[in-house]
Design brief:
mainly alpha, 3-stranded mixed β-sheet, 7 strands
């Protein structure tokens, strides 16, 4: 008998996020959407006047902050409603209406940067002196003024803003295609039951002790992707092409320059990550050799990479148990941090389990009322680590929102993965410290090595693939399915080495990865992981001084550039040292794992 997922309306309230904390009803949301639309005229009333007086400029930014607060609430409501059931046409329509309104507001605001950069340095300083309230917005203003070489005329900026909805189309199409339209076959699970493969249960299947289950799930999922490889290639090609268009329009040489300049991250950081990881691939190759021996297989396949190699230590972890363990593991962060964490656990910040049509994966969205965390919790150790990870994001958002003014409350993506991964590392150190059983310790080290494999190595492989496909597009090539599969297969061969059989179907995995639609986002998982290793070690060894610095970092939002914010916490990401240091730790981990098994 097949195991069926619950429909959204069948899910227990306590396992859903408190969306009503944003708006008590859809009707109230639509009323506020009309209020948002009214801001268009309020904003346009300042057009052509930003340089006229300091009072006018201050009034403009105060109006913008009001707009941003309402926009944040509206976007969070429509996005959360869409993601909890992607098959619901009501919320597809709501999300579409929100996107249309967002583009209209963005278009209305498009005159800001062109007018700001026309104000002379002398006049701008006079404004700061005349209106002390403008000092709050100095960093925001100066961050725009530094973009002067890439700012177009008012008419051109409005045209680009109006094209925003079209630019988001490839990502939206891919999300709907993946989450709502693709249906995978049923397989027979370990208990002999027929179960349909879904995005949510795929990784648990990959962790199964039964190799037949792993292979069937692997071939079922990627077999479906193979059927639609040309469609997926066309969508990804459209995504990359729109990035090229906007980069060239903004007078950047490449899409990576355009993407990283927005977040004030040097392109050299991206390249040095790939270089450092490529140089240290022998660590991953050695881990694959150990995994192959531990599993006792003649051939190690791609579907053998997720299953724990210490089977006896595998155990289920309920959601309630996970929450308790995470609280204990994060106690070194101090009472204030734990208080906020418990508030999130007890007040429905989290949408816990998978349901029909629910978006796959996990994320945290930093709404003003409180963060919202999407989970597809599966009662596994991996799910517990994912929960710790997402609550790291959530508390980062909470602290930034409660410390910074609205205009600086949202942190940039370069630092986004630091807080989440620091939580994971603290959880791992807690579990290892409280584990004396050799088999369980080996299991945990295996899990830690999997973090290295899936975060530092695998995400860097994704980053390298993203750079490759953008480079191909910049050279005028069209990304075909065959080209993408060939490049992706070759990368897998390089990263995993001679001890892994690179199964044919892994070549289509790129079609399953949503991060290729996030515009040079994915590399920051790897840089963030490296920074988090250093930060968690500092917190555990130095205690309160390190925690104080770390909380300052978490509370920083975008009040400074990301490299400077991390320096507050004691980490210098302008060098490759954090990446190199994180990789050096693999020597001891691999030695201990080998001795334990």
């Amino acid at each position: 008998m097949a195991k069926e997922l619950k429909k959204r309306n069948e899910v227990a309230k306590e396992n859903t996020w408190a969306i009503e904390d944003l708006f008590s009803s859809d009707e109230l949301w639509y009323k506020n959407l009309e209020v948002l639309k009214g801001y268009k005229e309020k904003i346009l009333a300042f057009k052509g006047k930003l340089g006229s007086s300091s009072k006018t400029l201050l009034g403009f930014y105060q109006q913008v902050e009001e707009l941003l607060r309402l926009l944040d609430d509206l976007l969070n409501y429509s996005s959360r409603k869409r993601d909890q059931d992607t098959k619901n046409s009501t919320y597809q329509a709501m999300d579409g209406a929100m996107m249309t309104a967002y583009v209209e507001v963005s278009e209305a605001l498009s005159f800001e940067t062109p007018e700001i950069i026309l104000i002379s340095d002398e006049k701008m300083e006079e404004f700061y002196q005349e209106e002390k309230g403008l000092e709050l917005y100095r960093r925001h203003i100066e961050s725009q003024r530094r973009m002067k070489p890439h700012v177009l005329s008012d008419a051109e900026e409005r045209l680009l803003a109006a094209a925003g909805e079209m630019a988001s189309a490839p990502g939206s199409i891919n999300s709907t295609f993946n989450n709502a339209d693709l249906v995978f076959p049923e397989i027979t699970d370990e208990d002999g039951d027929k179960v349909r493969v879904t995005h949510g249960n795929f990784i648990p299947f990959m962790q199964s002790k039964d190799r037949r289950v792993r292979k069937e799930a692997f071939e079922s999922l990627y077999g479906v992707y193979e059927q639609f490889k040309n469609t997926s290639a066309s969508i990804l090609n459209a995504q990359v092409k729109q990035l090229q268009f906007f980069a060239k329009a903004k007078k950047y040489n490449t899409a990576i320059e355009a993407a990283l300049d927005v977040t004030e991250v040097p392109v050299s950081v991206y390249h040095s990550l790939i270089e450092a990881v490529n140089k240290n691939l022998p660590y991953l190759h050695r881990y694959m050799e150990i995994r192959k021996k531990a599993l006792g297989v003649e051939e190690l396949h791609m579907y053998d990479l997720y299953t724990p190699i210490i089977e006896e230590a595998d155990s289920k972890v309920s959601f309630e148990e996970a929450k308790k363990t995470i609280i204990e593991a994060l106690r070194p962060m101090g009472e204030d941090y734990i208080r906020i964490l418990e508030e999130g656990f007890n007040n429905r910040w989290i949408d816990v389990y998978e349901n029909v049509g629910k978006r796959s994966g996990a994320y945290s969205a930093g709404a003003r009322v409180h963060p919202y965390v999407l989970m597809n919790y599966a009662d596994t150790l991996d799910s517990m680590f994912t929960l710790a990870h997402e609550m790291g994001h959530a508390l980062h958002s909470y602290l930034s929102n409660h410390t910074q003014p609205t205009i600086y409350s949202d942190y940039v993506i370069f630092v986004a993965e630091v807080a989440s991964t620091c939580n994971e590392n603290l959880l791992m150190q807690y579990l290892l410290k409280n584990t004396t059983d050799k088999k369980k310790r080996a299991y945990l080290i295996n899990h830690l090595l999997e973090n290295y494999r899936t975060t530092l190595f695998r995400q860097t492989m994704f980053a390298e693939f993203e750079l490759m496909i953008n480079t191909k597009a910049e050279q005028g090539e069209t990304l075909t399915a065959d080209m993408l599969c060939e490049m992706y297969r070759e990368l897998n061969e390089k990263y995993y080495g001679k001890d892994v059989v690179i199964d044919d179907k892994i070549a289509i995995e790129w079609a399953r990865i949503p991060h290729f639609y996030y515009n040079y986002y994915v590399f920051q998982y790897a840089t963030g992981y490296s920074a988090a290793v250093a930060l968690s070690n500092r917190i555990l060894t130095e205690g309160e001084p390190a925690v104080k610095d770390y909380i300052k970092f978490l509370s920083g939002g975008r009040a400074a550039d990301p490299i400077s914010l991390l320096k507050i916490a004691g980490i210098d990401m302008s060098t490759s040292k954090p990446v190199e240091d994180a990789l050096k730790k693999l020597d001891d981990l691999l030695d201990e794992l080998e001795s334990l098994i």
